[in-house]
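note to self: dont lose this again. the chain is below, predicted strucutre after it. 439 aa total, dont forget to put it in the shared folder this time
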Amino acid sequence: MIENKKILILGMARSGYEVAKLLSNAKNTIIITDQKDQEERQIEELKNLGITFIKSDEPETILDESFDLLIKNPAVFPFHPCVKKAHDLNIDVVNEMEVAYHYLKNPVKIIGVTGSNGKTTTVSLIYEVLKEAGMPVKLGGNIGTPLSKIVLDLQANDILLLEISDHQLIDMHDFKTDISVLTNLCPTHLDYHGSYEAYKETKKKIFAHHTKEDIAIINADNYDSLELTKNILSTKYYFNNEENYYTEEAIYIDKEKVINTSDIILKGTHNYENILATYLVAKILNIDFKYVNAVLKRFKGVEHRIEFVRELDGITYYNDSKSTNPTATITALKSFPGSICLILGGMERHQDFHDLTPYLDKIKKIYAIGETRSRIMDYAKEVNVPCEEFTTLKEAMPSIKKEAVNGDIVLLSPASASWDQYIKFEDRGNEFKNIVNNY
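---
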């Protein structure tokens, strides 16, 4: 518990708002700052709790040696001037989840899921399976509910299931899971971490403080995941190996068929990998596979991840706004036979669109948007794929509607973060769906 401290919370959003409330009852002096205006209702609520909100483009001017702690929003880059100043002043830098971890008052089992791609689907599947089996589970983390919001409600022997991103792991120190799932690794968020090596080392923190008593679930078909975890102390379980694998026809655990793929709503090799990880969690928790199978027969997937929107005039629209790196977009491209009108682009993070080159035969035309649109245009010319650029998604949609024909797939899979124009990728996906559903 944090008491009698002077704290600066850098970045509001959901996590800043919730951790401020969590800390407000322990005689702490709390200032929360953000460069954007916030909801008046939330500001008033925080004010009534004795918390000061300051809108500022230069939060480093607020921070001085009188502060004891800086709580950084995961979206704030680690080399932000305010973060650098905190380090210079020897002020501890943590995040909301790390703070909330220290407020656990009862023994709970913590399951953490991370990875470059697939973590939201995997954590959602695990959650549905645990609920189906009647387990006392609470879901939070990067999937949308800050741990600070639920930590005080956790009861003894609850299961705390968390999606944990690299942006959260980077500022964790004491946080520890009992079971950690690493779905896969690929180069992404390099602008945030500075290098792929730094990114991987941050991901490795999901196994921090593990002993042989703790469990690691690892993708055996992902070289970087294997290399990163070869020296961790956890007891390791693998999927995509000789014991736990999938074929076109079925899923196998311990070389035994557990379900036919024809009975699973989710399709695609990427989803079968997420399913394998889910079965392994069930196995470790001694959950009967009948509960996994029941979920798989009804689970339709995660919003904004290759999400079917509608079919109109023979044209099928899919929202894959959650694809914020080229590897995720490749997964989407592999899910369709071809004739794809691809909406590509967003925040400039120096992502390499050349990774898409092996899948160009599936793309009919690229519609480039956002900060990366000019670079995408150059790439499209280089590989001889038709391309048109627009500043925003909204500007692109009329051209797409006019040009798409019967049999085409319109796919929003940007291979880019949304922060150049949206607060979060969900906003980008919702705008796409609203436009399509109002045709």
